[in-house]
Amino acid sequence: MMVGVAAIELRYLMTIDVDASFPRALGAFPLGERRVVAFDGGSFRGAPGLDLAGTIAAGGVDWQTVRSDGATELRAHYLLVTDRDETIEVQSNGLRIMTPEVTARFAAGEELGADEYYFRTHVRLSTGAPRLMHLNDRIAVSTGERRRGQVHVHVHEVV
Q1: CA–CA dist 36, 59 (Å, integer)
Q2: 3-state class of 71 per DSSP?
Q3: Quick check: helix, strand or coil at residue 149?
Q4: Which residues of the chain have pLDDT under 70?
């Protein structure tokens, strides 16, 4: 019997649309093939009722490791800039898993449905903006969609 265990709930926080360059292959490393994806910009918008929207500063990056089983480990680090010129640091770590068939279709330029692969991350947000300080004290998770030249990240805070 588990006593005093709180239920975990998710509440939609924001959607982030990242403009991403083509992955740059860095070669084989002990844990798998390494790639880096530069972020060229993009935008974000908060849940309805939240005064939270803006752009993604150029210069963010996603370090990726493609494991021998085909899964891709993701480690993204980038900066959101609100319409009020406030900054929010984003650190996101997770996994994207596609079957070989889905990977081949994606490589051929076909658009995929988000339900055709697994793309989940753990997201931490950090800011010095007084009105957004509550973001520093939250854990978030996301689902992602990889499109040609763009990544859509749907962020939910754990409440």
Answers
A1: 12
A2: coil
A3: coil
A4: 1-2
Domains and CATH numbers, the chain: 10-158 (2.40.160.20)
Q: Please answer whether residues 149 and 19 qualify as being in contact, where contact means their C-beta atoms are separated by less than 8 angstroms.
A: yes
Residue 102, token pair as written in the block:
């889905």
Q: What is the DSSP letter of 148?
A: T
Beta carbons of 69 and 39 less than 8 angstroms apart: no
Residues with Cβ < 8 Å from 149, sequence gap 6 or more? Answer: 19, 20, 21
The confidence score (pLDDT) of residue 71 equals 94
The rounded distance, in Å, linking the Cα atoms of 96 and 60 is 19
What CA–CA distance (Å, rounded) separates 19 from 38?
9
Phi then psi dihedrals of residue 7, to 5 deg: -70, 150
pLDDT of residue 154: 97
Mean of all residue pLDDT scores within the chain: 93
**pTM of the predicted protein model:** 0.90
Nearest residue to 141 (alpha-carbon basis) of 94, 105, 106, 84: 94
Query: Given this model, what pLDDT does residue 1 score?
Result: 62
The whole-angstrom separation of Cα 150 and Cα 112 is: 13
